[in-house]
Amino acid sequence: MKHQQRIGDQPWLRRLLILSALTAIGLLLVMPLVAIFAQAFSAGAGVFWDNLSDRYTLHAIGLTLLVAAITVPLNLIFGVFLAWLVTRFEFIGRKLLITLIDIPFAVSPVVAGLLYLLLYGSNGWLGSWLMDHDLQLMFAWPGIVMVTVFITCPFVARELIPLMQQQGSSEEEAAVSLGANGWQMFRRVTLPNIQWALLYGVILTNARAVGEFGAVAVVSGNIRGETNTLPLHVELLYQDYNLVGAFTSASLLASLALVTLVIKSLLEWRQHRAAH
Amino acid sequence: MLFKLNKLKSGLAIAGLSLTLGATPAVGASLLNSSYDIARELFASYNELFQEHWQQTTGDNVEIRQSHGGSSRQAQAIIQGLRADVVTFNQVTDVNILHERGRLLPEDWQQRLPNASSPYYSTMAFLVRKDNPKGISNWDDLTREDVSLVMPNPKTSGNGRYSYLAALGFAQQTWGEDQDAIDSFMKGWLSRVSVFDTGGRGATNSFVERNIGDALLTFESEIQGIIEAFPDRQFEIVVPEISFLAEFPVAVVDRHAERNGNLELAQAYLEHLYSKEAQRLLAGFNYRVYDEEISAEFADRFPELTLLGITDIAGSWENAMQEHFANGGQLDQYQRR
């Protein structure tokens, strides 16, 4: 029988396609990443270290970590509850709720920031009440945490919902019928089933919480050493003509992203192995 | 197992962080200065000067916090609740807005400090490339076909507006009542602009890093700073014979300062800008100052020129905004081909 020729069969074409894909990846992904680190170290390790140990940079790192440390646990609990609710119960408005979860994805971060400002700023609906009670949310770290929680709240739920839908509730029903109480059931049956997806959601939440720029820029107030997160700090240094400093901070963010990706791949690999 | 470990780690991280954040030392009084984008180094130096002065006169330590951004954005944040005690802006209109939209300070704020509350000033000038290859020396050189310009957009940036008004002032002085000549000059130089950046630093980057244009139109102070920051590029400054008086207004934000219990401190902070040592520091940052003795010290850095204020050129800021920069205003008409 005569073998039918397909498009990818000519070796020259195959090589051409592979080569162009590799070139694109090199130019668009690898080179910029290398450039960040090359710029950060362009004036030597000493200058890199000086920029890193600068008072304001250290504060930006601390603030960014604080925001993540509050955001991630909050959204972890929120996401699990929400996923549980929409996959284990039937109620009116369930479909609507599933759609609503996606709002932070659909809305541009800048708009999200402005929404919070309109609501909690001193001219906002709740703002004048807050003002009277001397509570400062916007232009202080609580505001930054609030918008970050908003921006990152879908990640955990979005990871869990399809999985929990697919798994169904039969195992949990079995646990209950054997006399487990709610907590035992969650701890021994539900959690082991969803743990990888949950961890994956947490990693995504963390990555976004650390890197968020647009929404945070609106509510931060740009007070150096007080409300400046790491992404804002990068922009600030860049505008000050401190290129090395800007790329030093950028390299921190990039390293964080790389670590996140490595953990993610590791998890996927373990999950894959566990499945077989 | 992995789970427990992770939880433990994040718990530790939170505990560690709350410790470090809680440990931020609380110094006596704390003042928040909301300022424009490119004044970071300037106020970092001035704050040290003032802290010393305050310590000597009252014996108290004071902490000064800085917020920097585009001055319109900064004004907006203050109206929305950023509790700045003082503003040190580069545009009078942005301070006016604090009165109009938020009633945060009285309407006559400009009368509260000398020189219309502007302790220093600058003017608009040109940055040209090494040896000034296009031979640019005045505003009318900018209309030549072989010249290409870079400047911030007058629609979005005060810096751009100042250059526009400076050129208009030159045209008014040169052609007087002849509106046709003024119009064709304005059209001419605006058509030579190849990049309108949104802000001053963006325009600088286009000219310096991306090598666009034969001349950059921006503040004299910014130009001197660029020349110092890039010595090997051998850029040159050209100060035209007529230009615009760019004021840098400062004001206490009464409502916020009162609330923060900082009224006296805030006033002292701004008044000290007029002292000899502060004026010397400002001149060192390439701003022109009013103090005669200090001006004389720095005379070689600041060539003499005719400076026109907003009242000479457009009557008032309100007028200028409406007639020239609003949608469908003069600027839009000049740019229509």
From TrEMBL, chain A:
Subcellular locations according to the entry: Cell inner membrane
UniProt topology in membrane: Multi-pass membrane protein
Domain ABC transmembrane type-1, first and last residues per copy: 61-268
PROSITE patterns with a match to the protein in the record: ABC_TM1 (PS50928)
Highest taxon in the source lineage: Bacteria
Signal peptide residue numbers: none
One MF term in the entry's GO annotations: ABC-type sulfate transporter activity
Keyword terms: Cell inner membrane, Cell membrane, Membrane, Sulfate transport, Transmembrane, Transmembrane helix, Transport
GO CC term, one of those recorded: plasma membrane
SUPFAM superfamilies named among the record's database cross-references: MetI-like
UniProt cross-references to Pfam families, sorted A to Z: BPD_transp_1
Transmembrane segments: 12-38, 58-84, 96-119, 139-157, 197-223, 243-263
Subunit field text: The complex is composed of two ATP-binding proteins (CysA), two transmembrane proteins (CysT and CysW) and a solute-binding protein (CysP).
Function: Part of the ABC transporter complex CysAWTP (TC 3.A.1.6.1) involved in sulfate/thiosulfate import. Probably responsible for the translocation of the substrate across the membrane.
PANTHER family: SULFATE TRANSPORT SYSTEM PERMEASE PROTEIN, SULFATE TRANSPORT SYSTEM PERMEASE PROTEIN CYSW
Descriptive protein name: Sulfate transport system permease protein CysW
Automatic annotation (TrEMBL), chain B:
Biological process per Gene Ontology, one example term: sulfate transmembrane transport
Record localization: Periplasm
GO terms of molecular function: molecular carrier activity
CDD domains: PBP2_CysP
Pfam family, one: SBP_bac_11
Alphabetical UniProt keywords: Periplasm, Signal, Transport
Full protein name: Sulfate transport system substrate-binding protein
